[in-house]
Design goal:
With about 200 residues, the chain is an alpha/beta fold. It has helices at about 60-80, 85-100, 140-155, 160-165, 170-185; strands spanning about 10-15, 25-30, 40-45, 45-55, 105-110, 120, 125-130.
Length: about 200
């Protein structure tokens, strides 16, 4: 998603907060009359720069900003996090969404969890995430981590549990993503049709 920033001569530029709490603190949209159809994005310090055609409507701009932020997040999450980075991420999420009350003793990736995205043993303070999450968008991994962190505070999936997760703005989107993955895995394999 990187592009050469010199390729665009931005006649108009807007800066806005990113939707859904992306890591970057701001999004800058640069419009270019020379750009006809392509949209690209790259990180520049603490901001994300999205390059779009000048003729694009405001609605198209908003849609493409969301698409490009998701693509960048997916690329970044493909850089595999080790257990140490995963534990640090869990601590940051606990501090941000649960006032630091959810304190796991261990957070690690596991390869023996193929029917669950994550699991938690509150009595041991341990959280395990399925290796199948590696490479998924950052907001999805964050949601699963938060889900398991919430179990350190509230056992089960009652109303108090779901109230905790309401603080994370991408809960529904992440759940939809994971439901889509499960649905796709259940589809029967059909080899591609060949032209004869």
């Amino acid at each position: 998603m990187s592009a050469d920033p010199r390729a665009a001569s931005p006649p108009r530029s807007t800066t806005s907060p990113p939707p859904g709490g992306s890591r970057a603190s701001a999004v800058e949209v640069r419009r270019s009359a020379r750009r006809r159809r392509t949209v690209s994005a790259y990180r520049e310090g603490d901001r994300t720069v999205v390059l779009i055609p000048a003729r694009m409507s405001e609605a198209e701009e908003q849609r493409w900003v969301g698409v490009m932020l998701d693509k960048l997040a997916a690329q970044e999450s493909k850089r595999l996090l080790g257990d140490t980075e995963l534990a640090e991420r869990a601590r940051r999420l606990s501090a941000q969404y649960f006032d630091g009350r959810a304190l796991p003793l261990t957070v690690r990736w596991v390869t023996n969890q193929n029917t669950r995205w994550g699991s938690c043993t509150p009595s041991e303070g341990s959280i395990r995430l399925s290796h199948r999450l590696q490479g998924m968008p950052e907001y999805v991994v964050d949601y699963v981590l938060l889900h398991e962190l919430a179990h350190l505070l509230v056992p089960g999936h009652g109303p108090d549990f779901w109230r905790l997760l309401e603080a994370y703005p991408r809960t529904e989107r992440a759940r939809g993503y994971l439901e889509g993955v499960v649905a796709a895995e259940r589809l029967p394999f059909r080899p591609p049709a060949t032209d004869t």
